[in-house]
Design a protein that fits this description.
This protein is 37% helix and 23% strand. It is an alpha/beta fold and 488 residues long. It folds into two domains: 270 residues, Aldehyde Dehydrogenase, Chain A, domain 1 (3-Layer(aba) Sandwich), CATH 3.40.605; 184 residues, Aldehyde Dehydrogenase, Chain A, domain 2. A seven-stranded mixed sheet has the order 15-16-17-14-13-19-20, sandwiched between helices. Strands 10-9-8-11-12-22 form a six-stranded mixed sheet, with helices on both faces. The chain has a three-stranded mixed sheet with strand order 1-5-4, with helices on one face. Helix 3 packs across helix 4, helix 3 runs antiparallel to helix 7 and helix 10 packs across helix 11. It is globular. The relative contact order is 0.14. Bound molecules: nicotinamide-adenine-dinucleotide.
Length: 488
């Protein structure tokens, strides 16, 4: 069985940490590899190498830096299937979901290839008498990326290609629960021969994160994970004077109006709630049925939940396991708490067992009804295949549910009415809005947004925001006294 290595200063090195943990296939509980949680000293070594590499890398012309991304895109395409299978093996999602995730990762490389346009500065000639003024976008230095477990292939790419092409050096720490996908990506990066230290991989947990947050050579931190950790990372990195962007957790309401199309809406909402076993930050968590939508959608969503085929992600199934035994126990505990708080479990996916995968961490889709809006579970991110149904009289009540929640990652509306849709997109106080779309995941040329308890910072990952985040602006005000020149 392989023990995963770090990639530091252009070389694969073993961590000396005795804090070693297994990486499981969540469908079978089989141990796929082991990963050592790197020490602060090992993380500092990666930062040191990045710091040293930065001075030269930033001077490599942009037109040459972008060539690395063109080659990266080609190599990711070549290894697309293998990478997708690795995601399914370590994370549990279906192969189709893993392919979708890798497609979005590659799309981010493609968008980052537009750096030569999107990092241009501005120029104003004669802005005052004899004065020209312009901006230059320059790289920041060493940038840290800290990723969550649920998209091992995609989420690092919200940041990585933009940071590198803009001239920064990067230290990436994947989730210790799913380190295999980034190990593969770094074997590709090694082949591409980035100068040593420009891009490093440090496997680890809290100790490695704290080292990245505290080291003064790290200029910027991009984090994605739960809101509790996001708040912690944001506060600690900002206190150390860094530029920080932290995407956090979610509790996403989907509003269904009476004029929504029954079959297509049911399918899309079920995919949103139960796809990736509900472990998406854009998973539908609450379905809010408005007026006459109540009866038909109550029935159709129950049915869609009960019929969803669950199993090993490399087989022909619609939903895989959750990430760990702890996660399964936590989610089942929340379903019990919901019952104690007044909910009825109308589709019960607890204690699921899949033939041939009896050791896996499976839960089947679960539907809660009658859960009071002021209950703990109605305000808690479950991060599993659990959808609660709520009933309201009109759009105002639905918007109140959205805007009073502590999170603000996504809200969606299903309707045939343009008027309702316009009001909804304007008044829902969230970062990502879906209209007749159940997972409003922005494509790579748009920022992956988020608001309130779901995002801490200003600029997001992906697209123009990422270029702005990974560059600082310098303003030059320039005057040249008129030469009484004999040259002309
Ligand atoms: P997590 O917060 O447990 O871990 C995220 C990262 O932080 C990992 O690399 C982990 O090693 C590190 N970490 C964990 N605890 C830490 C601590 N106490 N101190 C320092 N570092 C720590 O998140 P997760 O369980 O891996 O991911 C799931 C969460 O991520 C969910 O809440 C989900 O909603 C959220 N998420 C959000 C988005 C978004 O765009 N808003 C996208 C994906 C996932």
């Amino acid at each position: 069985m392989s023990s995963l290595l770090n990639f530091i200063a252009g070389k694969w090195v073993a961590s000396h940490s005795e804090n070693v943990r297994p990486v499981h296939n969540p469908a079978s509980a089989e141990v796929l590899a082991t990963v050592a949680l790197s020490s602060a000293a090992e993380t500092h070594a990666a930062i040191e190498s990045a710091h040293n590499a930065f001075a030269e890398w930033r001077r490599v012309p942009l037109t040459e830096r972008v060539q690395f991304l063109f080659r990266l895109k080609a190599r990711l395409e070549e290894d697309f299937e293998e990478l997708s299978k690795t995601i399914t093996l370590e994370c549990g999602k279906t192969l189709a979901e893993s392919r979708g995730e890798m497609r979005r990762a590659i799309e981010n490389v493609e968008v980052a290839c537009s750096a030569s346009v999107l990092t241009q500065g501005l120029f104003s000639e004669d802005i005052a008498a004899g004065i020209d003024e312009f901006t230059i976008r320059q790289p920041l230095g060493v940038c840290a990326i800290i990723a969550p477990f649920n998209f091992p292939g995609m989420i690092p790419f919200w940041f990585l290609p933009y940071a590198l092409v803009a001239g920064n050096a990067v230290v990436l720490k994947p989730s210790e629960r799913v380190p295999l996908t980034m190990a593969h990506v770094f074997r590709i990066l090694e082949e591409l021969r980035f100068p040593a230290g420009v891009v490093s991989l440090v496997n680890g947990g809290r100790e490695a994160v704290d080292a990245l947050l505290d080291d003064e050579r790290v200029q910027a931190v991009s984090f994605v994970g739960s809101s509790a950790t996001a708040r912690y990372v944001y506060a600690r990195a900002a206190a150390a004077g860094k530029r920080v962007q932290c995407q956090g957790g979610a509790k996403n309401p989907i509003v269904i109006a009476a004029d929504a199309h029954l079959d297509s809406t049911t399918q899309v909402v079920a995919d949103s709630a139960f796809g990736c076993a509900g472990q998406r930050c854009l998973a539908a968590s609450m379905a809010v049925l408005v007026g006459d939508a109540r009866a038909p959608f109550r029935d159709s969503l129950r049915q869609a939940a009960a019929n969803r085929l669950t199993g090993f992600g490399l087989d022909a199934v619609q939903m895989g396991p959750v990430i760990s035994a702890d996660s399964k126990t936590r989610i089942q505990g929340l379903i019990e708490t919901a019952e104690q708080e007044g909910a009825r479990v109308t589709v019960d996916g607890r204690n699921a067992s899949i033939r041939g995968f009896e050791g896996g961490y499976f839960l089947k889709p679960t539907v809660l009804e009658g859960l009071p809006l002021d209950s703990n579970v109605a305000r808690t991110e479950i991060f599993g295949p659990v959808l609660s149904l709520h009933e309201v009289d009109d759009l105002d009540q639905a918007l109140a549910i959205i805007n009073q929640g502590q999170y603000g990652n996504m809200a969606c509306l299903f309707t045939s009415s343009g008027d309702l849709a316009r009001r909804f997109r304007s008044e829902a106080d969230v970062g990502n809005v879906g209209i007749n779309v159940g997972v409003a995941a922005p494509m790579a040329m748009f920022p992956f947004s988020g608001a309130r308890g779901s995002f801490f910072g200003d600029l997001h990952g992906q697209g123009r925001d990422a270029f702005q985040f990974f560059t600082k602006q310098k303003v030059v005000v320039e005057r040249w006294p008129r030469a009484v020149s004999r040259l002309f």
